[in-house]
Amino acid sequence: MVASLPSNAPPADAPHASAGPSGFDASWSGRLEPLLSVGRGAGADLVEVFLERTDHLGVLAEQDTITNVSPAFGMGAGIRVFLGERDGFVSTNDLSAAGLMAALDQALGMLALVRSAPDRSPFEGLPGLHDFAAAKLDWLARCPDLREATHRLLEGTDRLQRHGNHLQARRGSYARDWQEVLVAASDGTFARDIRLHQSVGLNVLAADGDHRAGVGRRYGTSGRPDDLRQWNAETSAQEVCDSASTMLYADYVEAGQCPVVLANRFGGVIFHEACGHLLETTQVERGTTPFADRVGSAIAHEAVTAIDEGLSDGAFGSLSMDDEGMEPQRTVLIENGVLQRFLSDRAGERRTGHARTGSGRRQSHSFAAASRMRNTYIAAGPHTPAELIGSVNRGLYCKAMGGGSVGPTGQFNFAVEEGYLIENGELTKPVKGATLIGEAKEVMPRISMCADDLELAAGFCGSVSGSIFVTVGQPHIKVDSITVGGR
Amino acid sequence: MTRSPSGLDAETLRSRLDQMAARSGIRQWDLGAACSTDTSVQVDRGEAKQMKGAQRSSITVRVWNDDGLVGITSTSDLSDAGLERALAGASEASAFGNADDIPAFSPLATAPLQPLDQPIKEPVSILDLLATLKDAEHQLLESHPAIDTVPYNGLAQRSSDRIYLNSAGACRQQQLTTASLYLYARAEEAGRKPRSAGAVRLAYGAGDLDIAGCIKEAAGLTASHLDYAPIETGRYTCVFSPEAFLDLIGAFSNLFNARAVLDGVSLSNRESLGNTIAVPFLDLHDHGRHPGNIGASAFDGEGTPTARLALMEGGVLRHFLHSEATARAFGVAPTGHAGMGAKVSVGPDWFEIGATPGSGGGQQGLDRFTAEEPIVWIDSLSALHAGVKASQGSFSLPFDGWLLKRGERHSIEAATVAGDIRQVLKAIVGFEGEAVITPDGLCPHVWVEGLSITGDT
Q: Which of B3, B6, B43, B52 to mutate to test the interface with A (most CBs of A within 10 A)?
């Protein structure tokens, strides 16, 4: 069944996205309870409504000019109905009572359920609002305004000019994503939150004859309205320019198998891609993780303890509640090499039996929540970074990592943005063009040393429920052997 | 036509914007709007896994202030309050418009629009979609004993409307229906690693999808990867599948992108037009209006009609992709490849790759199954977002494919292919077989010599 698209003239009761600092409050229970009641009365096991308002600002500076300002705002709802292990999900931009009921009808129809008399519903009403947003209502107003944001960004591109050599292009970008969400479900969930993510990125393209190097870094936090004001443009620009200068004349890496030392911060992408995704219950549901029946078994070297949590103050992947209204936990995934548990959401719990961990996340109302990572990192170990590098006779040091991905059979890959050869226990010349590939089952036992310098880095993760804010992290780690693709 | 069955009404929208703009003292504006309805299903071993529906709407408003500077704002809120706020936001943003690069209305935004032959199909019920996908999954699972699941699958249909309006009277509207099917199977034999592969089909309606072909392709590809072995690291002649070669060209499309040229992040520059950048028998066109392009756009984000454009002929760079602003900077006409923004993005649409007419098309009689030398057949590339350095020209990408040696074919266990796009374009040996229509373009199998392959040995 296909519902009609919204007309150009929304009904009078439809809220709009410019309703002020708070569009959702406890009074919404009166609008949402009938939906939950109807859904349960129709025979659904569980009905969940996710409401969202967003306010985005993107600014781009190139060289010494602001070249693009792109504000956006919106609103929408996602309604999900569960029946056994199946579910139907409908999203809409129409938040009027009629629009929401039409979306519910469509979701019920997907499961061959139809409305019945309201008095036959077992739904008993929503409790009081669990309001995580109350202390956050002024967050948006406390963020830098457009003028301040453009000034800070131009400060960044100016610093790039001061520190860089052979720069053909300089870019700074700023993104501010504000989101208010309300989750109501027939199991008694009724919670509201406000999220604020800000990130700033600097990129350069250095060119000298045939030599070219493109380097970029992005820094991000959550829940800190002052983030852009606190951003250290000088340090960021210096880091980007240093890397570009180094990589401009770097040779391509020699391909083959070798030991690798991965730096802290964004080096954590290796765990994210090689193992983290495979510990989400969405992968258990699909039968695409080799670890499905390995809880309690060693799946990694005993040096490895890995954690996923949504609690670190200001981290990009932190949450007061997940997108299903559950407070996040600190979830120990692997302890001393032994698999402890999976990341789970509502659907994951129903389909795999793994208890929810506050990991139900989605990009927006148009995606059904799925089990996703938050702040994910390998815990610090006992060594120093120098000990790790000193233990390698000939290998690769990966100082800065790019993005990566994992396939349906557990094969992962990620790019090395800034690499150095390790020769006789010391860093020597810079190399570029490396891609690391491998399989989770094989690489996890090869992470044999962890240093004592755990740090986190902001990132974006794209998967089944869209692109979300995450943190990756680790201390310096050593992988005894991995395939390095190159030329 | 200004009113579509979806309810998106161009004239009403224009009237509302005219009134609001007048109240705000805005004399010049334009607008891009889109509405869509989607339904989709996923299955898991004979059961419905998830069924989804979505109604989406969005509008981007662009305004020119009294100083001629441009600002934009986007919203999904089509209420009057939402549009008012969008106009106000665009006005505020216009104060930060770039005086050195001001977009204008496309001179072609009111040019005649050639109709596209795009049949509008009625959607089928989601329960019918479900039944179809369950059956497809069943057939795929039955096709080979080693195929145990189809972990990634989906059958979807969409009905959409797009509108472009401007205060100078331009009015574009396009209605479209599309459907897609993807089946990605996983197979495993005792004592061996799991392997996977998949196939995709597009059509204007769910009833038109080549489901049998998709099942057959997914089954054949998945089974073909069961017999796998590592490959020795070294340099090989590679045969790119049409999909893989189109992916590679798409990843380096800044070669042809006038916006990237002006920004200094392209591998080309203003003087590159007329230069030989590939073998003399390679033609490359952008041809979004090709009948094989399901979901083709009749106009771009600025209302410019789409058209076939020669990017490379005989290996010579002929034209860049343009928006209104970049075209003005180059002194040419817009090409129909613009997005919408204060800074307007430019991007390719759908590639057509093949031999230059009359050139002979490089080495003749190429057949990867009878070649004497070992051949690496690259079926699909992965992780392009991470492994491509577009502004540097280099790539290092994982791939799925096979090693062909004197007629024998073995799947490659895990490997990467690395190179430089400028060297690849000059190392093309020739083409094998007829050009094939894919979701991203039209292309034959392409032979390239001397590429670096790293194996997992």
A: B52
